[in-house]
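F.,

This is the one I mentioned.
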């Protein structure tokens, strides 16, 4: 009957057009039908029909989940992690392989077949993880100074303290409160930089003016660590948000000073490159290992927690630099070698 045949083609067309992956799975785990989205999500160019489930989702618990559906009937929804040939830039690299997360919904059709719909939730899972990490990092970073503040203020309330002791405790409280203020200030700045709907105000200034300000803000730090900082500007004008660019460079220069042994030197210079200006901060410090390089721009990431904390760092500085580069449509790059030093290049469009 022609009408029935037309209906069937229509259903197949609809399944083929779905954004979710669709698989018909036999009791023996063989794929009876698969739509285009399933192939695309799994990165298979050849047809999936006839393949075994274990080929497509190796290392996952999907097979046993399918067995459950054939045994218990009904419908089951769950997430799996698959380790085999995960493709795409969002595939999570862990151990030696890459992995992806999929959300599945499997329904028993009849004695022989179950139908599965699935979607790739790797990105979602990752965002969820970033959010959880972020909250736990913020809490941890604020708890440390807060514990000191509450501990020392309790001691301060005791009566038999000398004037000297009292002052000493008050100074510790002040120092920790200042540290908390800085963390909160950095977080608020990051949040405001995240707001893509707000365009920063741009003004005309020059690289030499910017370097002068950076020098003024970082002099105290260089002096305290006996590190000579040299400045050389190309004498170019630039349209940017001056205070943000100064803030980014201050973060880079303070890092260069903090993560270098005493007596070494730091160089800050600018170079015109086509319609970009490169702000280059180089040091002769401890350097950064290759495996840490891709992560240093993440919020709260510190290579050497002890060393960074000793210098009062929270791991927010470079993520602020990266955000400032992005909102200027510029870039931030780093080259580094352990115990040789690091070169950070902030490239911004001239206008
Ligand atoms: N010039 C550098 N040389 C060596 N390591 C560096 C350098 N700059 C950054 N790092 C490493 O990268 C990490 C992240 O830097 P970032 O500026 O984001 O955080 P921080 O300096 O620890 O804290 P904050 O800047 O928030 O006070 C640092 O903890 C440090 O381990
Ligand atoms: Mg820093």
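My design for it:
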């Amino acid at each position: 009957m022609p009408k029935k045949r037309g209906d069937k083609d229509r259903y197949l067309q609809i399944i083929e057009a779905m954004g979710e992956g669709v698989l018909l799975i036999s009791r023996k785990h063989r794929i009876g039908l698969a739509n285009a989205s399933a192939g695309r999500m799994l990165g298979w160019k050849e047809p999936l029909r006839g393949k075994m489930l274990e080929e497509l989702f190796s290392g996952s618990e999907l097979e046993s989940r399918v067995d459950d559906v054939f045994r218990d009937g009904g419908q089951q929804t769950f997430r799996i992690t698959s380790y085999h040939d995960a493709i795409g830039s969002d595939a999570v690299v862990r151990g030696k392989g890459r992995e992806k997360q999929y959300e599945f919904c499997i329904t028993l059709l009849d004695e022989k077949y179950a139908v599965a719909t699935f979607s790739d939730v790797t990105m979602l899972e990752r965002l969820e993880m970033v959010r959880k990490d972020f909250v736990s990092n913020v809490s941890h970073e604020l708890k440390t100074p807060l514990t000191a503040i509450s501990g020392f203020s309790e001691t301060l309330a005791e009566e038999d303290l000398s004037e000297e002791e009292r002052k000493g405790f008050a100074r510790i409280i002040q120092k920790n409160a200042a540290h908390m203020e800085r963390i909160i200030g950095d977080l608020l700045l990051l949040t405001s930089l995240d707001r893509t709907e707000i365009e920063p105000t741009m003004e005309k200034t020059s690289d030499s003016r910017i370097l002068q300000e950076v020098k003024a803000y970082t002099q105290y730090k260089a002096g305290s660590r006996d590190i000579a900082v040299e400045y050389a500007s190309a004498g170019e004008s630039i349209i940017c948000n001056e205070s943000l660019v100064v803030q980014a460079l201050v973060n880079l220069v303070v890092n260069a000073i903090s993560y270098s042994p005493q007596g070494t030197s730091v160089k800050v210079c600018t170079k015109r490159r086509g319609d970009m200006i490169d702000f280059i901060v180089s040091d002769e410090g401890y350097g950064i290992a290759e495996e840490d390089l891709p992560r240093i721009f993440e919020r709260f990431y510190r290579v050497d927690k002890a060393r960074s904390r000793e210098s009062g760092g929270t791991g927010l500085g470079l993520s602020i630099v990266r955000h400032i580069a992005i909102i200027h449509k510029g870039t931030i790059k780093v080259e580094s070698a352990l115990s040789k030093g690091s070169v950070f290049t902030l490239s911004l469009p001239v206008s």
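The pocket of magnesium ion (ligand 2) is lined by residues 251, 254-255, 313, 317 (CB under 6 Å).

Talk soon.
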